[in-house]
User: What shape does this take?
Amino acid sequence: MNFDVISPKTTPELLNAIYDNQSKNFRIGAGFTDLINQFKAQETEGLILINLAQLTEVDFKKISENEINFQIGALTTASELIDNKSIKENFPVLYQAANKLASTQIRNVATVGGNICNVSPSGDMTAALIALKATCHIIDCDGNERKELLSSFIRGLKKTSLTKKELIKNITIPKNFSKNIKSGYEKVGSRKSMEIAIVSLAYHLQMDDKGVITYAGVACGAVAPTIPFTTSACEFLTGKNINDISDSEKEEFAKRVLSYANPISDIRASDWYRKEVLFNISKTIFER
Amino acid sequence: MILTFKINGEWVTQEIKPSLLLIDLIRDVLQLKGTKPGCLEGECGACSVIVNGDAINSCMYLAINVDGKEVTTIEGLENNENPLHQVQEKMLEHGAVQCGFCSPGMVMTTKAYSDKCIAEGITPTREEVKKSLEGNLCRCTGYAKIIDAAEAVYK
Amino acid sequence: MMKVIGKSHQKLDGKERVSGKAVYGHDIELPNMLHGSILRTKYPCAEIISIDTSKALSLDGVECIITANDVDVNNIGYKKDHPILKKGTVNCNRDEIAAVAARTKEIADKAIQLIEVEYKIKEGVYDPFEALKETTPRINEFGKGAEQFGNKNMAESFHYEHGNLEEQKAKSKVIIKKRYELPRVTHACIATSNITAEFNNFDGRLTLWSSTQVPFLYQRDIAHALKMEPSKIRVIQPIIGGGFGSKLDMHPFEPICALLAIKSGKPVQILYSREEEFIASPTRQPMVIELTTGCDENGKFTFREVEIIKDNGAYTSWGATTPFVMMQSYSSLYQVPACKFDSHAVYTNNPFAGSFRGYGNPQATFSIESNIDLMAEELGMSQAEIRLINANYKGEITGQGLHFKTCGAIPALKTVIEKSNYDKIMATPNTGRYRRGVGLGSMLHVGGGAKIYRSDGCGTTLKIDDYGYLTIVTGSNEIGQGSETVLAMIAMEELGIPKEKIKVINTDTDVKPWDVGVHASRTSFVAGNSLLGAIKLIKEKLSKKAIELLDVVTDDWEYANGMMRFNEFEIKLDKVVREMHFASPHELCMVNYFYEPPSKFQDKDFKGDVSGNYAFASQAIEVEVDTVTGNVRVLNVHVSQDVGRVLNPVGLQGQMEGGLATGIGYALTEEMIYEKGVLKNPSFHGYKMLTSTDMPDVHFYPIETYDEAGPYGSKGAGEAPLIPTAAAIANAVSNALGVRFYSLPITAEKVLRALASPTPPKEGLLREAKPVTKHQ
Ligand SMILES: Cc1cc2nc3c(=O)[nH]c(=O)nc-3n(C[C@H](O)[C@H](O)[C@H](O)COP(=O)(O)OP(=O)(O)OC[C@H]3O[C@@H](n4cnc5c(N)ncnc54)[C@H](O)[C@@H]3O)c2cc1C
Ligand code: FES
Ligand code: FES
Assistant: This one.
């Protein structure tokens, strides 16, 4: 590896760095847990790295809440998410996804923004955030800001809507309107730790006090080029009472989740296995 | 690029190439060979060191990003009164060291975790202890003794 | 009463290891040292048309480059069928074409990429059955298969038999014939392969800092490869970060590093990357085993007939001799009246297999123990009962001639059956998402070395200095398994010298006496006996002097706390030594001893008592299968092993747990996945070893049988714990699901496929598992 590094401390410095290097080959890096392995596999001579790790700007880093949503800075690490009590209470799906990512050592540096922008179909935090209908807040080096729903921000395999001028500042998640939630993250792999999901299922359901599902967010990882938000499965659940979903309704739900799957076969699992497991775990989320 | 950081309690200033990895700074530049290269891809934890209290993989970390920070390597656990840290004592007592190539990483991960537990006043369960070690591979011991040793640290 | 033996002792150099002070191969830096890097073939099977190193040579910092054309060397390997650097053809994806030495590793790696090789790609042969066909071309041009075994692609072949097979078949009520497939797995030592070489131009001496586990055989092999005199080669072993059999063979990178050092005139170091480690270090033999076994109406075993096709890969390593061990299990694990064994190692364009802890035995045991469960099922007998009535016993001389002077097979089986609640779990009906099951597996392995080289011995030199410190110079090696510690414990026990005053020197062939190396679970046994022999001599020396000094007549000294004592007479050990040294006849307190185990070479029919003693073990493993994901989790492992005698409990337990972790990985998750000879998962990310969260609780019950051949009655124990593990897990999964798996690893996908197959689980699949051949 042989690249140059710019380490901005403030937002203006950061935006300047991006502005100044528009004509050059540059990459943005946060925790580098994806980037270092990529850099090793390519020629990095002449590459410029804009290093976010030394940014002191709180907007990029803090987890905070207002009346309508939670804001999570793009540089928040998986460990910081896990340690945050409100996240754990309000969004178990996100807590579990962050906690099932790699190891302590990786979680201590891997960021939410990096997980999203790496656009891997098996990104754990990304899957949880999609189920939570998170929105990305994006800034560019001309001083513009825009926001976009995460599920549409991701445009395809390894593709996002980001331009060369842009980066993610933070992510927002709408607050729960109910305390009665069923939320979790199922990650399937051949061992209990250090797995990239073979299949994952992120689900976040909110019920009224009678148990009627008023919000359903379900996303599935590693079964398609992107992580789909399973709208039709979610619509199917909405209005049903969580306490008496029949076996045939579970089947129907699972079928609808499955309709979003278009997996590949690789050395870790066949497309057949991925579908089979997705279907199976979809049925089981009502059980616990 | 000039880097100023604290290594094992001492501030140092060092000229480095910007793309240098922390593990190479530690092993090649500073000649601290206790930090081990097991995979250089973030998978085995043999290279674990502590940066500002957190265990990280030094093979997945840019050296420039320790600027202004405090780094502890296995060598930093030794002091005049106690040549071995309690975590190391427990590992020896419990037979948690065989070939030993994973041991420095195991020690650093456990040290960071135990510091955290002590600060928060919690005693982790065995399952939590196992989870704290999930990023450290060992081919010799089957982990049981390492887990026992870590558990003993928290008792 | 033993004071030291049998009590837990910390690892001798544990403090160095746990504090990062121990020096491994990766930590060595010599003045002016260069870094080497190896160019490997791009295609597993191709002709090399040309190699152009000119661009690489002109890169700043590159000091020398070698290809096959630049060196005058011999082939290496067990069959000398392996060129160090390839020319003409390449045969597998780890083949070495050129090597570079440069000022930094980065430059060396870059130079490698600048070497231009023109290939003519050939269609490779990746299936051993395909390789055996008449029409398939010859794979290894040095192979002697045509002359020796009647097939050009046969690398090695073994035939063994005892008893009257036809008679035993006729007696059989149940006959089970099954085909088992075993995958390629690898050692995955946490420290990658490494070597540092330095050549002295003045006297032509070569020093190698090498992680070999057999330094003296290695010295001879390197010498042969480089056409040097063995005695000019000094092998120094830095601390070794894991062995498990991977360092039994000498591999091409080692003489390559030496050649770079000779050519450049500077020290050269080669360190494998993790990817290179997966691609270019040895593996366990993959094989297909077709096993037919029978029993009579009472469940007594009648015969075993087995035919094995092993994928040898492109070259032949020590691993080709695994049938030595496998045939022991087929012939002698449980009582077997008749046995016929055929094994063929076949060349393919896959990477070559080496030796790996267990040495063929995990594969053999998987098939044997699976067939036993099937026979019991067919007969309607309990799986525990059928094992107990056939178990090996003390005094047994098996069909192969192994003599079990002590035998803990039955107690081991009984212990795990009872402790695991085997009968109860077996009978518990299984429904719901998570299904539990339990399975049994037993094993037999050599416990006192195994004679496969002309000597299986070990030398020891002992020295007590003027201050009462003991130096043990042993031929044996420490690769993390704790042998040094056991040696120190023996010396503490016998000579009453405290641990702080004992040094073990074992890393330098210029200094230490000969030993065959670490393999066959032999180190504690052979080195321990060698040390005991040396201690006997040094005691004689001490006794003679003490008698003279104290003017008593006895040879019944008690050695304790640095003293020699007899009744009211006592004297400090160091004083005796000093008197020996400074007073007439001016002698140093030093002795030499060489121990050669009593084991014999087997005869040409492979019969004979090959080991000093034999280890027996049983495991009962409880699993839980998730029918939603197909994942199998191991919940509990109960392992009972005849270790003769426990020397260092904590060390022994560590060997058990470590072996089990590898065994569980073999059963469930580990597999090197190749496509047309190219490895698809060369990383820890793709090759799934167990992590701390996957490790079950291990309950270990040692059985002590006090075998008089071993030190204090002990037997070798290091390999046993992973041998029956896959078998026990497969049996447990079968118990949980009613579906049996004949190939490893039992992946989640295989499980789901079996559960989803048109024949429903429960009854239907149990039937599927029934025998193909049947005699009434
Ligand atoms: C051993 C190992 C295990 C892993 N296990 C898992 C796992 O279990 N689950 C999982 O999901 N991932 C896993 N990963 C992948 C990785 O750790 C995560 O994707 C992580 O969240 C990436 O974050 P980072 O900050 O390290 O990203 P970086 O490597 O810094 O960046 C990743 C990408 O995001 C871009 N980027 C980063 N921040 C921003 C921003 N604010 N705006 C715009 N672009 C940005 C970068 O340009 C780059 O393209 C693993 C990686 C390793 C090495
Ligand atoms: S060497 Fe860094 S994780 Fe393996
Ligand atoms: S002790 Fe050898 S890898 Fe852990």
